[in-house]
Amino acid sequence: MPTHIAILFAVCLLIGFLGRYRKFGFWGYFFGSLLLTPLIGIILLLASDPKKDRQ
């Protein structure tokens, strides 16, 4: 596996991990950054709201 693809995948995993308590969750941010770009994934992450607690 080329190094740049591994780095891209790792950055997408990191974005997903950071978004796990956000509106779209881990998988939403992971696939969003994987399909679009990690830069767009970071922008989505920063622009989103945290999840609301169910009570």
Automatic annotation (TrEMBL):
<keyword id="KW-0812">Transmembrane</keyword>
<feature type="transmembrane region" description="Helical">
    <location>
        <begin position="29"/>
        <end position="47"/>
    </location>
</feature>
<keyword id="KW-0472">Membrane</keyword>
<protein>
    <submittedName>
        <fullName>Uncharacterized protein</fullName>
    </submittedName>
</protein>
<keyword id="KW-1133">Transmembrane helix</keyword>
